[in-house]
Amino acid sequence: MGRTQVKSLPRGAVDDTALTPRSAHEGILRRQAARESAARTYARALPIVPVRARGLTIEGADGRRYLDCLSGAGTLALGHNHPVVLEAIRKVLDSGAPLNALDLATPVKDAFLTELLRTLPPGLAERARVRFCGPAGSEAVETAYALVRAATGRSGLLAFTGAAHGSNARVLDGTSADTHDGRVVRLPYPQDYRCPFGVGGERGADLGARWTESLLDDPGAAPLPAGMIIEPVQAEGGAIPAPDTWLRRMRQLTADRSIPLIADEMQTGVGRTGAFWAVEHSGVTPDVMVLSQAIGGSLPLAVVVHRDDLDAWGPGAPADTFPGNQLAMAAGTATLAHVRENALAERAATVGARILGQLQQLASELACVGDVRGRGLMIGVELVDPEGEGHSGFSGAPGAAESGVAASVTQGSGRQPLPAAPELAVAVQQECLRRGLIVGLGGRHASVVQLLPPLTLTDEQAAAVLDRLADAVRAAARCRGGGTAAAP
Q1: Contacts from 343-349 at CB under 8 Å and sequence distance 24+?
Q2: What InterPro entries has UniProt attached to this entry (predicted)?
Q3: Which of 85, 109, 74 has its CA nearest to residue 323?
Q4: What CATH number labels 83-341?
Q5: Are strands 57-60 and 65-68 parallel, antiparallel or unpaired?
Q6: In the chain, at which end, N or C, are there fewer CB atoms within 10 A of the end residue's CB?
């Protein structure tokens, strides 16, 4: 008789073939916890093991199916494994083209640039230059800062409270409100619910703009900065849209002082907010755009688009190792073209407005929902403690009095923001997961449940997402005594 063949496995590997789906799923999670760094974030909140995905749906190793409203933190404009993206990737693989071409010209890159330039705001498209960097958005932010510093001969950067600009953007490390530190000055970002001046609305936005103007024109302040960077809708800050009038005013303030305006469109771009680029809502044309996430069609890609007269670099400027990801460029071209040709930005505006309206109805019923906001399919639901005391939201930002903005302002809207409830937000996320819905968390207090569904979301899928989310919020509120009556 022949000897029994024993299956040989690499050292440390595990044979899961005889395990049930549930036990295989649990084994993979245990090994992840034992092998990976404690820095992992999404895996802690979402203990799933994806094995298949298509569109809005993910299937886990345990056989469960989920509606994915995280979309790879916004990288999946068309959802998982969209046919046009897969076809574009297969075409490059079958062609024998190099997968990494550094910064060399290739047909794949040429097609990507042609499609990208076709989508840009007109005032920028005619004068655009594109710098491939990356592959992450944080590296694109660093590249943009280096660009405006070289072009202007100045240092320092104006940014806004609540902005992330890439989780590892070293340029924003050690940020300070000290205008004399030569690095980053944080300015108030307007919002209604937690207005830094306690008034919200147009009045709050006007106060923020006046403060910025006073700071720039203060003869005792540091010299003008190399640039100003703005998210048209704050992403990690909690899905907070910038008022269009305020954004136009920032554009005017910077243009009048020859300060390059950098628009961070990493998460807002490619139709996410209901326009192809979020700056188009206000009609603003930035000098620089930082693009990442969805432009790679789910694969790593980051670029900086800027006006030609800012192109101060010459040959020999610092170069990245991975600026030539051909698969990402092909997937990105397919994604950009599909969004443009199928008017998916307009679709995001329509479906997003409907979702916002229904979530605002939920907020009127539940006291634990403090605010619902967003633009297009970039939506945030802020959870609060209905038993806590309201406050004006004004935090006494440094320099307010000195820059001519009164530090004592009453809440003009009549709606007092309640204390943030991050524990409740975590509970809602877990209740969503139990119901087969994946959502993200964000916001300055980690109390905002975020929805970033793909732009291909159907009406039926939107209804299913809303049903599961509303049920999860109600269940979490009951468990934590959040109540069902809205606050007055």
Answers
A1: 344/77, 344/78, 344/271, 344/455, 344/456, 345/271, 345/274, 345/275, 345/276, 345/376, 345/455, 346/274, 347/455, 348/271, 348/272, 348/273, 348/274, 348/376, 348/377, 348/455, 349/273, 349/274, 349/275, 349/376
A2: Aminotrans_3, Dat, PyrdxlP-dep_Trfase, PyrdxlP-dep_Trfase_major, PyrdxlP-dep_Trfase_small
A3: 109
A4: 3.40.640.10
A5: antiparallel
A6: N
Joined together, the tokens standing for residue 10 give 């690499």
The pLDDT assigned to 136 comes to 84
Mean pLDDT, rounded, for 150-157: 92
Round to whole Å and give the CA distance between 3 and 421.
63
pLDDT band at 271 (very low <50, low <70, confident <90, very high): very high
Residue 161 and residue 149: Cα distance in Å, rounded? 21
Kindly list the strands in the beta sheet with 157-160, ordered across the sheet, starting from the edge strand earlier in the chain: 128-133, 302-307, 288-291, 261-264, 227-230, 157-160, 184-187
Instruction: Give the strand order in the sheet containing 440-442.
Output: 369-375, 378-383, 448-451, 440-442
3-state secondary structure of 381: strand
Q: Which pLDDT score is estimated for 350?
A: 97
pLDDT tens digits for range 376-426: 999 999 999 998 775 444 444 444 433 333 332 333 334 578 999 999 999
Q: Would you report the helix, strand and coil content of the chain in percent, each value rounded to 5?
A: 40, 15, 45
Which residue's entry shows tokens 């008022």? 243
Query: Over the stretch 319-353, which tens digit does the pLDDT of each residue have?
Result: 666 778 999 999 999 999 999 999 999 999 999 99
Residues whose CB falls within 8 Å of the CB of residue 303, separated by 6 or more in sequence, listed in order: 116, 130, 131, 132, 133, 134, 140, 291, 292, 295
Buried b / exposed e along 399-437 (16+ C-beta atoms within 10 A):
bbeebebeeebebbbebbbbbbbbebbbbbbbbbbebbb
Cβ proximity of 112 and 277 under 8 Å: no
